[in-house]
Amino acid sequence: MKLWGGRFIKEEDRLMEEFNSSINFDIRLFKEDIEGSIGQAYALKKAGILGEDELNKVICSLNEIYKEFEFGKIKVDNSYEDVHSLVESLLYERIGDTAYKLHTGRSRNDQVATDMVMYVKKEIRVISAQLISLLEAIMDNARKYEDIILPGYTHLQRAQPILLAHYFMAYFEMFKRDYMRFKDTLERIDIMPLGSGALAGSTFPLDREYEAEVLGFKDISLNSMDAVSNRDFCLETIFNCALTMMHMSRISEELVLWCTKEFNFIEIDEAYSTGSSMMPQKKNPDSLELVRGKTGRVYGDLMSLLTTMKGLPLAYNKDMQEDKEPTFDAVDTVKMCISILERVISTIKVNGENMFMACKEGYLNATDMADYLAEKGIPFRMAHGIVGNVIRYCEEKGKALDELSLEELKEFSDVFSDDVYIAIDIGNSINRKLTIGSTSREMVEEAMKIEEEWLKVERNMFIV
Ligand code: ARG
């Protein structure tokens, strides 16, 4: 049955019915719709609209329907316009007319906004817990490979030696920010729209604060028009997903490069690779490619909803039904990708020797040599020029910097002495970094300790 048939004489066109219907996707809000309805029932009881018996009947039946749904016993009939119509009709089948009282002082506009925000809150908790697991996997790798040195890159050109732990901790910082962003969003969006009616509020004395308490909301909305037409909480969440995807895409891209024969820095576990149907030798890092590939669709989800919202006058407009698929898709995608990435990261094999060898070629210690000269009093800009000349000489001779004799070096500057070899040693190069946040063992250890403490606290926040 339609929730709005009374005013109409003519039948709805079948195609229009199909076009208008959201049941295929908003069925995902089934549980939230039941929970929201339970909250509504309590508020109606308090307002004197439902009697004690009626309240009990409503709550019992809604709980029953909830359980049946969980056990897959509810047949989702596509003839319903949306999940709200379905839930109401399931309740009507059980308790008759009292079911229709539930919509007193409630519109689907405040109902759907409430369902959506409850859904988003629940999913943010799941994503946050997943991000913590991912952060733990990254931290484990940083600890496991603490001593491995590899080239750090800028412009994808070998730049300076870094610790592999420093590399992993760089991603730790990114995903920590993502986690914090979700957490922050959760704080901000915890506001109940229910009780806003269609747009103007309700004639019935619904105790919204009490209802919010029943439904586990921290706060209630203060403007009914904004409340029914607000989808910022979806947008913020999709944005958070998009940014997390961007970070996951970057590490994926990097690991895809690292497992090529050209780099040969890591191996991806077979469980997360696939073969080629034609080339028997291939082992492709599909897991990482898909994480990278799915990033685009989450950006699309964000664009799609931003665009849906941009031209809408107050208050509710049916356009807003288009909030669901992008929100669901972004959440589903980010959850799947975090899980996969965590598994890939915890199972990679690191080829530390190749990483170190790569530091030997490409003059990664050139900056250290320039710093050495600067420490001896040569202005850095000039030291940079001198080392540039040394590099050109090395390239002609096919030598590495540390393969030059002191006499050869003295040709470029008489400041060079024996201690230059200590300064340009790859291992020393790392530890000569003194600034907080740098790649020296000491600073990386410091950062890891701080982040391990942080993890200990946050780990208990979102247990699911
Ligand atoms: N299916 C609708 C949605 O997702 C529910 C709200 C409908 N409200 C209305 N006034 N037609 O947005």
What can you tell me about this protein's structure?
Belongs to the lyase 1 family. Argininosuccinate lyase subfamily. Residues 363-431 form the Argininosuccinate lyase C-terminal domain. Its main location: cytoplasm. Pfam families: ASL_C2, Lyase_1. The structure is a single chain. With 464 residues, this protein is mainly alpha-helical. The chain has helices at 14-20, 23-26, 30-46, 52-70, 83-95, 98-101, 108-144, 164-189, 208-215, 224-229, 232-258, 286-310, 324-347, 352-360, 366-375, 380-397, 406-410, 420-423, 426-431, 441-459, and strands at 149-154, 157-163, 191-192, 219-220, 266-267, 349-350. The chain has three domains: 14-101, Fumarase C, Chain B, domain 1; 108-206 and 218-357, Fumarase C, Chain A, domain 2; 366-424, Ribonucleotide Reductase Protein R1, domain 1. The protein contains 20 helices and six strands.
Distance between the termini: 38 Å
Our count of helices gives: 20
The strands making up the biggest β-sheet line up spatially as 1-2
Give the SSE string: HHHHHHHEEHEHEHHEHHEHHHHHHH
Mean pLDDT: 95
* Overall strand count: 6
Regarding quaternary structure, what we see is: single chain
Largest sheet: 2 strands, antiparallel
The CATH H-level superfamily of the largest domain is Fumarase/aspartase (Central domain)
CATH class of the largest domain: Mainly Alpha
CATH topology of the largest domain: the name is Fumarase C, Chain A, domain 2
Q: Summarize the amount of helix as a percent range.
A: 55-70%
Protein traits:
464 residues; mainly alpha; Fumarase C, Chain B, domain 1; Fumarase C, Chain A, domain 2; Ribonucleotide Reductase Protein R1, domain 1; 3 domains; two-stranded parallel sheet; 20 helices; 62% helix; binds arginine
